From TrEMBL:
<dbReference type="GO" id="GO:0008270">
    <property type="term" value="F:zinc ion binding"/>
</dbReference>
<keyword id="KW-0808">Transferase</keyword>
<keyword id="KW-0479">Metal-binding</keyword>
<dbReference type="Pfam" id="PF13920">
    <property type="entry name" value="zf-C3HC4_3"/>
</dbReference>
<dbReference type="InterPro" id="IPR013083">
    <property type="entry name" value="Znf_RING/FYVE/PHD"/>
</dbReference>
<keyword id="KW-0963">Cytoplasm</keyword>
<keyword id="KW-0863">Zinc-finger</keyword>
<dbReference type="GO" id="GO:0072572">
    <property type="term" value="F:poly-ADP-D-ribose binding"/>
</dbReference>
<dbReference type="Pfam" id="PF02825">
    <property type="entry name" value="WWE"/>
</dbReference>
<feature type="domain" description="RING-type">
    <location>
        <begin position="21"/>
        <end position="59"/>
    </location>
</feature>
<dbReference type="GO" id="GO:0016055">
    <property type="term" value="P:Wnt signaling pathway"/>
</dbReference>
<dbReference type="GO" id="GO:0061630">
    <property type="term" value="F:ubiquitin protein ligase activity"/>
</dbReference>
<keyword id="KW-0833">Ubl conjugation pathway</keyword>
<dbReference type="InterPro" id="IPR033509">
    <property type="entry name" value="RNF146"/>
</dbReference>
<comment type="pathway">
    <text>Protein modification; protein ubiquitination.</text>
</comment>
<comment type="function">
    <text>E3 ubiquitin-protein ligase that specifically binds poly-ADP-ribosylated proteins and mediates their ubiquitination and subsequent degradation.</text>
</comment>
<feature type="domain" description="WWE">
    <location>
        <begin position="76"/>
        <end position="152"/>
    </location>
</feature>
Amino acid sequence: MAEARFNDESQPTKLKDDLECAVCLQPCIHPAQLPCGHIFCFLCVKGIANQSKKCAMCRKEIPRDFIDQPHLVPNNTNAEQTKTYDEGYQWFYEGRNGWWQYDQRANEEIEQMYKLNQNSHEILICGQLYVIDFENKFQFPKNILLERDLLNEKNLRMFKLKVLLV
């Protein structure tokens, strides 16, 4: 089970303010400090740990158990966000282990695009770009590889087979 450890060694009496994440380039949401000392949003660290397993700043390896036992850094921004998070509509997405709520910043961005009647919207989640399709109520990573080939009889049979198998 995931367990957060708060790391307040550097400033034991004052919460850290104005922490900016080097991955999403926005104020940190649930800042997490890596063993090398660099601080990122927890979701950004999770994305880095799953993709490269190295710190985005110094390239030192991220321990395997870091996501399950992160070193969270307390800050005033998270305390303020928690107070106002219960107001208005909330957006959720389905994951392997059930339904998950977007963080406040993503929730506000998604809600704004939905109110503007956009068909889809691109959003950065865990350091990866996702497309949210409002019409089909679907979210998918943007970097899905596409292939272009000339249509011939062999390719057409392969396509029909793939469609039938799905």
